[in-house]
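hi support,

uploading two proteins for the ticket. first:
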Amino acid sequence: MRFWEHYINISPESRDKFILTIAILLILILSRILISRTITRYVTEARREYRYRRILVYTFTMLLILLIGPVWIRDVQSVSTFLGLASAGLAIAMHDTIANVTGWLFIVWRKPFKVGDRIQIGETAGDVIDIRLFQFSLVEIGNWVDADQSTGRIVHVPNSKVLREPLSNYHIGFAYIWNEIPVLITFESDWQKAKTILTEISRDSVEHLSEGAREQIRKAAEKFLIFYGTLTPIVYTSVKESGVLLTIRYFVDPRQRRSSEQHVWEAILRAFSKEPDISLAYPTTRFYKHPEPPSCRT
């Protein structure tokens, strides 16, 4: 006992608190390791394992506060006085921290997204891979990569942004988005034949991708005001400066957007190559030479 008093210079009461704190920490750490190993051994699904690990972290953090807090804090009146004096300073100094915790509570309570969802918040878009007390993490999509493909970067976003920035969820409501493929052909092309070909291609290539969308929309309509009259692929016609624009519009899973476009475009290129009266439009320059008047001829 003299060791604690003479070398570490703490009172017997503080020594007992310190020993009890170490004991609680060791018990909690060992318990967490055992439970974590049990989860790894018996839970094979990655999503369930992640969810159980998150619950484990939150539970042991709460137990740590509840068990160690009373060891060091005995006088409730002095604690309330201290908190009253420190609250104003903490509110200013920890503004961002409090905002992030509030954002986390909003995410847990309202569930604007969950792990696995594809979202866009502000200018950042990606697939949610982790949600923590102060921030959530995304595997970034888009940016310099086309068609919402992954860039490979992990972006950490403060939870407070869910309270300040517009949030779009690709999966809330139903797991489909509208995608459009613009096909520009020349004015000299037979646009009616081209439209018929594109309609057939869209029905053969992408119509199956929207299977189940009607049922999902029906379920989503119970919570949101969502209504679509047409779910099958459709081709729209419009005129641009350099040709006739035929736009294929269809439902697709967000993660199948690029592969579906590739499949459709390959079918279009094969079909148009067989039609001499259909040509894709591209920037061209035409010259017109005015005939010379008779007086200038020799």
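and the second one:
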Amino acid sequence: MLTQERHEAILKILSEKGSVSVAELTKTLGVSESTVRRDLILLSNSGNLKKIHGGATLTKKQFISGEDTVSDKSEKNIDEKRRIAKYAASQINSSDFVYLDAGTTTLFMIDYLSEGIKANFVTNGITHAKALSKKGFSVCILGGQLKHSTEAIIGLAAANNLQNYNFTKAFIGANGITEAQGFSTPDSEEAFVKAAAINRSFVTYILADSSKFGKVSSISFAPIDRACIITDKMPDGIFDKLTVIKVAQ
């Protein structure tokens, strides 16, 4: 692999994961650690990444203008999403009244819910409602506009439907997470629903794999200190004072 090809591959991995170790790059690129370290120094000197001990992180925020479809999302970072989903599901007990946001990681949660739990659910995810009902859970689905690409009910009508609910816990997805912009998503209609659910919940969890850190979407729906983040891995040196749960490998 040529130097330029390696550099492009490293930046692509960083854009997807937010941070990466030398060991990971060595295995993925099939080169020596010394080669990877030289590449990271060159990329760091050119301002494309921040070199840290044992690896690298993104140096600046990335703006996300679009959004993947459900099928595209379901093929990315599957192992990380499942670990996050398994931990998130373990936080639900029979006394809970839960809001479950549409999204691939929240959908994975349903696989890990014990059928002995008697929790009640509200969701804006069409697929989520079907999966919960199939497992025997009591579930209500919001009314509103259907967004085909994410199979979610969105918009002001859906947000208004949430005003009479008082959730013990809400599990929300995000497209981007930064300290300044907080949690963000590309769609204002979807942001309305996420914000309303958070405001109606006693405890909110944001489910986000490490690729979401350092990225900003068009619409912020909550400040960074409004929720507990459940993730697989975080870039070093950020969000140190926030409530973050890092799920074990």
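thanks. also noticed: The longest helix spans residues 3-17.
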